[in-house]
Amino acid sequence: MDLDELARLTVDTANKVARGASTHAERISQYLSPFATNLAASTLAFNMSLLGVQGVGFAFGVACTTPIAAPMLGFLGVGAASAVAAQAAMRAERAVQGRKPEGRILWENLFVDAALGLTFYKVLGGRFRNVLPSHLARPGAFAFQSILAPGARYCTPAQKNELRRMFHRDGCHTCGTRRGKVIGDHQPPNKVAAERSKASQLSSTDISAVLGNAATQAAGSLVTGKGPSQAAQPLVKAFRKVMKIVPKELEASRSFTQRYYPQCDTCSSKQGVVMRLGDKVPRRKFLVFHPIRPRAWGLAGAFPGLEHHQAVELSPAAQTKPRGRFRGGHADADAADGEGLGSLWKLTAEALRLPLAGFEDSRGGRS
């Protein structure tokens, strides 16, 4: 073999290797591109939808610590965000693959997507109330750990180190940021604790004194010849005063201890302003809108989207042929031979569809 033949053989081999590498790269790209698009679209849509739910809570004054309303609104919000994430992922993936979107959306699919999102949101450590805004006078949406506070005094160096560790791990308990200076936030705040302590000094004798003075003034008005309306005024004022005392007594009767939560300097400054002004500021000034933070539960929206993922073959015939189906819409959402994402959440999705299928069959039988 002379040098010319050796050179031609080398060039031919290099061309074959290049063509093979190009084919494999194209094949890998054709599989990975829809998958990456699905993952990105579902995660983004999920978190943006949760921001919308937080905006609803902010508009209606519902904080993460609001009883009943916060977990209920959070539950509904996570479920709705999961359904939105699945639809966004499916449409984005179809756009990348050059396919048309589904013509209609079945409520059965929305229910399954919402159930998957809710399940993985809890599995990844999310709490439904975390979706709502934080309240500056209460533990925030990112309040996970705390340490006992020795009254209104500032924290010790050892406590400051522990708070710094919590801050770098969980972030500010109000807004979730891990940047900036860490502050030991008293919860409840010192002003609230002082008001509770003062209210605890009130007793039933205070109420008796208020009512006794009012009765004396009313009797004196009647004796001096004043009308019943004027005589009743002291009693009305006394009743209003008692109505202010009773809630304070009930609140003060609850045992409480102050605790330190890690807080950033920005949220600490906001808290100082609103607590100093108190009732002079609107209620919404106590709410803090926290942006999207990199947390594990923020990936929960990816699983409803991956339920609808379909890996497309390289050949044109395989691109046009449905390779798998779910019941009721999204006919080509999965690969029947398992080359798509035939994993845990797909089995979960099918299990969730079974009772719905039975319900529809029973309705069809009755009709």
Helix/strand/pairing class, anyone?
A: mainly alpha
* Biggest beta sheet summary: 3 strands, antiparallel
Number of helices: 11
Shape: elongated
Query: Number of folding domains?
Result: 3
SS elements, strand count: 5
Helix content: 55-70%
Strands across the major sheet, in which order? 2-4-3
Strand content: under 5%
Low-confidence stretches: 249-253, 314-344
How far apart lie the N and C ends?
A: 84 Å
What is the CA-atom radius of gyration, in angstroms?
Answer: 32 Å
Whole-number average pLDDT?
74
Task: Please provide the ordered H/E string of secondary-structure elements.
Answer: HHHEEHEHHHEHEHHH
Keywords: Membrane, Transmembrane, Transmembrane helix
Q: Could you walk me through the main structural features you see in this protein, from its secondary elements to its overall organization?
A:
By secondary structure, the protein is mainly alpha-helical. The protein folds into three domains: 3-132 and 296-366, no CATH class; 134-188 and 256-288, no CATH class; 196-253. The protein is 60% helix and 5% strand. The protein contains eleven helices and five strands; from the N terminus they run H-H-H-E-E-H-E-H-H-H-E-H-E-H-H-H. Strands 2-4-3 form a three-stranded antiparallel sheet. Strands 1-5 form a two-stranded antiparallel sheet. Helix 2 packs across helix 3 (107-123). The radius of gyration is 32 Å and the shape is elongated. It starts with a helix and ends with a helix. The model is unreliable at 249-253 and 314-344 (pLDDT under 50).
